[in-house]
Amino acid sequence: MVLSQEVNVIPKVVPPEITRAQGLELYQDMVLGRTFEDMCAQMYYQGRMFGFVHLYNGQEAVATGCIKALKAGDYVTSTYRDHVHALSQGVPARAIMAELFGKATGCSKGRGGSMHLFSAEHNFLGGYAFVAEGIPVATGAAYSAKYRGTDQVSVNFFGDGATNNGAFFESLNMAALWKLPILYVVENNLWSIGMQHARASSVTEIYKKALAFDIPGYLVDGMDVLAVRRAAVTAIERARAGEGPTLLECTTYRFRGHSLADPDELRDPAEKDLWRKQDPIPKLARYLVEHQLATQDELQTIEDDTQTLIEDAVQFAQDSPEPPVDEITRYVHAEDE
Amino acid sequence: MVMQYYFEALRDAIYEEMVRDPMVMVMGEDVGHYGGSYKVTKDLFKEFGGLRVLDTPIAENSFAGMAVGCAMTGVRPIIEGMNMGFLLLAFSQIANNGGMLRYTSGGQFTVPMVVRGPGGVGRQLGAEHSQRLEAYFYGVPGLKIIAPATPLDAKGLLKSAIRDNNTVLFFEHVLLYNLKEEIPDGVDYIVPIGKANRLREGQDLTILTYSRQVHHCLSAVKTLVNEGYDPELIDLRTLKPLDLEMICESVHKTHRVLIVEEDYKTGGIGGEIIALLNEHCFDDLDAPPVRLASRDIPTPYNGRMEAATIPQVADILQAVKHLVD
After folding, report:
1. Which of A184, B20, B87, B177 fits as disulfide partner to B7, beta carbons 3.0 to 4.6 Å?
2. CATH assignment of B197-324, given 3.10.180.10, 3.40.50.920, 3.20.20.60, 3.30.413.10?
3. Averaged pLDDT in 10-residue chunks for chain A of 337 residues
């Protein structure tokens, strides 16, 4: 019986636990996610982006900490809050921004939109717009890796709300049963739109749900990219060794409303302030400077370069053509190329 | 030639495709050790092992979603619904992913998955086990839907479905599993998806049907011919995409249409076919098309009530005579 483990059970390491190159990569990736999302908000309010747009601000440490610990060829499956998972997995900002603009150059050729980003090239298996919908799909990718005899690992992100859904229990049961190479990463941001986690789940400590399947469950500080990375590395090693799935509960917070259409009036401003103080990006910046892995100037350069990259993505999206309406039926069937 | 039951023909189709392509696998409830509730996967577990013939927990939503994840990443799963009605629990994964994901991914991913299993009225299984899901799924873009009536078509169409790169729903019928027919031996027998089968040529009217109702129609046609009528009988076999070419060609000749189906009349396949007739061959019609379908009720348990739920041979005879005379 593997007991559920608190964060302090994951081996502590003497800092600095990362190299300078790793530190800069993590920082750059989180800044990329934040800058991209901030730009999305601007574009949405300017009427250049449409539909429901769910931003990831505040949760960057989870995507970065997990995905940057993966190897090329590993799978990532996301939710409707998928922009930053796609970015971390290597999908170019241009392709995502163009998709959000509904353009032909978008990563889903203008047919998917914010909640349906895909990239076969990057083994990004998609944004899934129903809560918990991606969990079985990610489980299938893990089964497929086992079936085909590869060492690929599947990482599946979803929110606290999904852990009250049957697909979560069904999938974890099967993954544990067949020792599938998968990480179930819960981004517990405490709120399912307006439903407080404690009002929705009889057991609020999600990592404890791992007990039901006799798999490791970790409680991780999802505002600390190094803590997430540490847990992810442990879980990825286990998955790749054929020992089965791991449940990671990353406690985090979204700094914006559920979507850009959400007035976000329900959450207590004091709660928001408390979490904003734990912003994972300045936290990593302090760590890098403190451990002399980077200078403030270098970090500023990363931020500036990222801003330029995102502006370029917007320009690219803006300049890209709309998909031809006479191709509206293209891709419905596999026969359409 | 070898005489085979419908369920054996299905089994051989799966067996042959699993031998042909190592990426083809089966998953579902009791498909492995138990061999399937209608023995369609009998002994495949012994032949191919548990990885390729996967006994799943009773978790339709998630094993269907798992099949999607497999299909997106190079595996070609065949899902068996122990009873097709159970797959209502997997509707979201089948419709959202099997049907739409290729499109929403801009053509980057395909979901080559077959969803097959028994359904239909006739064994007094009660409302939940006697469902006809074809109309429920009919409007979902991207799906192909097949409902074979004979062992030969069951084999040939299942092989096509397994090789198809789309998600294909394959509806079998509880009353057809023990139907026997001669099947060509030692050949790669394929029936293309989307091609109907003209079972009898005639001039008086066109009867369009599928699955078990094909056999009711065959009985009726026999009587009708003896009485001097000359009906044309078409087994649609594939419900989506429909063989509109054969349908229109037939209507151009007969000018009258009777549709016989076992799904609900309201929102059923027959209604859709009539709409297509209006769009494509209205000028050929000499009379309003008629449909015989299931009553709009949950299938009752009682045997006589159950029989009265769906079209019977006498109903078909009456409808034909009404249309032709």
Report:
1. B177
2. 3.40.50.920
3. 48 83 98 98 96 97 98 98 98 98 98 98 98 98 98 98 98 98 98 96 97 97 98 98 98 96 94 97 97 97 98 98 97 92
Q: Which residues of A touch B25 (CB under 8 A)?
A: 147
How far are the Cα atoms of A158, A230, B47, B159, B185 from residue B43, in angstroms, in the given order?
Answer: 39, 46, 7, 19, 20
Domains of chain A: total = 1
CATH number at residue A78: 3.40.50.970
Give domain status of residue A319, yes or no: no
Question: Model ipTM?
Answer: 0.96
What distances in angstroms separate CA B234 from CA B195, B229, B246, B292, B319, one per listed residue?
A: 11, 16, 9, 15, 16
- B291: which 2 tokens? 């449909």
Nearest-CA distance from B315 to chain A in Å?
Answer: 38
* Residue of chain A whose alpha carbon sits nearest to that of B141: A332
User: How many DSSP H helices and E strands does chain A contain?
Assistant: 11, 7
* Second-level CATH architecture of B2-183: 3-Layer(aba) Sandwich (3.40)
Comma-separated ranges of CATH 3.40.50.920 domains in chain B: 197-324
Sort out which chain A residues have CB atoms less than 8 A from B160's CB and list them.
Answer: none
Q: Which of A118, A140, A174 is the closest to B106 by Cβ?
A: A118
